[in-house]
Design a protein that fits this description.
With 280 residues, this protein is mainly β. Helices cover 14% and strands 51% of the residues. The strands form four sheets. Strands 6-9-10-11-15-16-18 form a seven-stranded mixed barrel. A four-stranded antiparallel beta sheet has the order 12-13-14-17. A three-stranded antiparallel beta sheet has the order 3-4-5. Strand 13 and strand 14 form a beta hairpin.
Length: 280
């Protein structure tokens, strides 16, 4: 995907020498049931085993807000002039949608109608209570079925590319390449034994000129956390890599974390017009 805009033309999914259009292959057949390219998906979708890693960075507030302005969301400031951005990767191993790899570029935000949190402690408090939305700016994956499902059910900005994840005993690595060009490579420590208690987190997305909100719950075993971390590798040619460079990367993350065995659950979305408040 070369387009870096919020409102963009969705790519077809290439499969068996065909160009598949998500909205022609998928339908909602019941309040909690979907047909996704010939397969039935029933909500909630459960993930019984996934390994994930994440780097969190401070970025320039004005530049981050300019990037996501058409979403109707507002980036939150951890410090004056500094917003947050997450680069993450997930290896889904046992999942209702199959075994696949996923990466993401995410910004913690407020939605229309939500008050602005105070810097630092206010932001952290809302994050801990699951009251701060995470706007999914991009979510590349390495398989077609989850691309259709993620788009149609939750509005996620998915497309098929190369996402490679290596979850070792001491360090986890993830690489995201698209159309032959590097976008980002991140790492995080592993080997921790901390248990991550269930955490509610709203994910926000933009699709078909609408805003989508999905509540996910994540818990897990083998949580590892480190202040700082390794400087990520950022590509030099892909437009998304140029977006990350404009935001100040590569640089050291604020913190890095991984979860060796995560469990997740995703329910149905709430969908409103861009700029309108969510009801829940």
């Amino acid at each position: 995907m070369q387009d870096t805009r919020i409102l963009y033309a969705e790519q077809c999914v290439s499969a068996a020498e065909q160009e598949q259009v998500t909205d022609t292959l998928c339908s909602k057949t019941h309040e909690r049931e979907y047909q996704i390219n010939g397969q039935t998906v029933t909500l909630p979708v459960n993930v019984n085993n996934a390994a994930m890693l994440m780097n969190v960075f401070t970025v320039n507030t004005a530049k981050a807000q300019a990037l996501i302005a058409d979403s109707g969301f507002k980036v939150v400031e951890i410090l004056p002039g500094k917003a947050l951005m997450q680069l993450l990767a997930v290896d889904y191993r046992e999942n209702d949608l199959g075994d696949y790899n996923e990466a993401a570029i995410v910004f913690p935000v407020t939605a229309p109608g939500e008050s602005k949190p105070l810097p630092f402690f206010g932001v952290l408090s809302r994050m801990m209570r699951g009251q701060l939305g995470n706007f999914v700016y991009r979510m590349p994956v390495n398989q077609g079925f989850t691309t259709h499902a993620g788009r149609f059910i939750w509005g996620f900005p998915k497309w098929v590319c190369h996402v490679d994840i290596d979850f070792g005993p001491k360090t986890a690595f993830a690489q995201f390449h698209d159309e032959g060009h590097a976008v980002f490579s991140i790492s995080a420590p592993t080997g921790g034994k901390t248990v991550a208690k269930p955490q509610r987190a709203p994910s926000l997305a933009i699709r078909n000129n609408q805003a989508w909100k999905t509540i996910g719950i994540t818990e897990g075993e083998g949580l590892s956390f480190k202040l700082g971390g390794q400087v990520p590798e950022i590509g030099e040619k892909h437009p998304l890599a140029m977006v990350l460079r404009n935001l100040g990367l590569p640089k050291k993350p604020l913190f890095s974390l991984s979860i060796r065995k995560a469990k997740m659950q995703f329910d149905g979305p709430e969908v409103v017009s861009i700029g309108e408040p969510f009801e829940r």
